[in-house]
Design goal:
The protein is an alpha+beta fold. The chain folds into 2 domains: about 130 residues, Diaminopimelate Epimerase, Chain A, domain 1; about 110 residues, Diaminopimelate Epimerase, Chain A, domain 1. The protein contains 6 helices and 17 strands. Strand 7 and strand 8 form a beta hairpin. The longest helix has 15 residues. The model has no long low-confidence stretch (mean pLDDT about 95).
Length: about 280
């Protein structure tokens, strides 16, 4: 496979995906990741995906957030990588995506990609966050997520004002957590808005955050399947594969390759020199 850099997105969560030498660079150069993900001086993305083949029906994925920091898991990034592996690397479906969290089984059916995720790393807990949100739940789906039911309609919230102090609350540890606010709509669909660490802003969708929200809601309402709608407006499904909240899940939703990226020579020269 030739060296390729592509723009991909899963329910509005967008990434730069590298194959060949681009995978090597994205996996090992945080400064390059920061520059490429910059939405004004670079190409723009929530993070990067370094994708490599690892045998029949198996690929390896290294994920970095837009700030260049490596994270052990990104659900939407893994879904995008699975589709790219099938369509660009010739992998069969189902396949296995090896991530920092572990091996993730994936199935690609056209534009819909499903992942089977392991149970949360530890039992959900209710940290005493300083913002007075006593009903917050901390659920780890590869990475930690603070899950909170919104006190009013999500569209009326200034998410930054709520999420920023929570994201780095000292009780969450030095790295903090992603913050996911949700609202159960009249038809049973759950609307979610997510503030992601490493991006330090609201993203159109956080896949592992949706799973964390779904586990909390399903456990509280005795459900085994839930439809969720992130800020992108896409509809994703989370199925509990045992009794929630500490159970394996299946996350399904859209993922697609948007475009192949051919950075201009001047831009690449700037990357090498570290200048803008």
């Amino acid at each position: 496979m030739n060296d390729r850099l592509l723009k991909v997105e899963g329910a509005g969560n967008d990434f730069l995906l590298g194959i060949g030498r681009w995978a090597d660079r994205l996996g090992s150069e945080p400064a390059l990741v920061r520059r490429l993900c910059d939405r004004r001086h670079g190409i723009g993305a929530d993070g990067t995906l370094a994708l490599t083949a690892a045998g029949p029906g198996r690929v390896c994925l290294r994920y970095r957030n837009a700030d260049g920091g490596e994270a052990r898991f990104c659900a939407n990034g893994t879904r995008c990588a699975a589709r790219a592996a099938v369509e660009l690397l010739g992998c069969p479906s189902p396949l296995t995506v090896a991530t920092g969290w572990g091996d993730i089984p994936a199935r690609v059916t056209g534009a819909v990609v499903s992942l089977e995720l392991p149970p949360p790393d530890s039992p959900p807990r209710r940290p005493a966050v300083a913002a007075g949100t006593t009903e917050a739940e901390l659920i780890e789906v590869g990475v930690p997520h603070l899950v909170i039911e919104a006190s009013r309609p999500l569209g009326s919230l200034e998410l930054a004002a709520v999420a920023v102090p929570l994201r780095s609350d000292p009780v969450l540890g030095p790295e903090g957590a992603n913050v996911n606010l949700y609202e159960v709509l009249p038809d049973g669909t759950v609307a979610v808005r997510s503030w992601e660490r490493g991006v330090e802003g609201e993203t159109a969708c956080c896949g592992s955050g949706l799973v964390a929200v779904a586990l909390a809601v399903m456990a509280g309402r005795g459900l085994r399947e839930l439809r969720l709608r992130p800020a992108s407006g896409d509809l994703l499904t989370v199925e509990a594969l045992a009794e929630p909240p500490r159970c394996a899940t299946r996350l399904s939703g859209p993922a697609r390759v948007v475009a192949e990226v051919h950075p201009a020579a001047e831009f690449l020269a700037g990357l090498e020199s570290g200048s803008r």
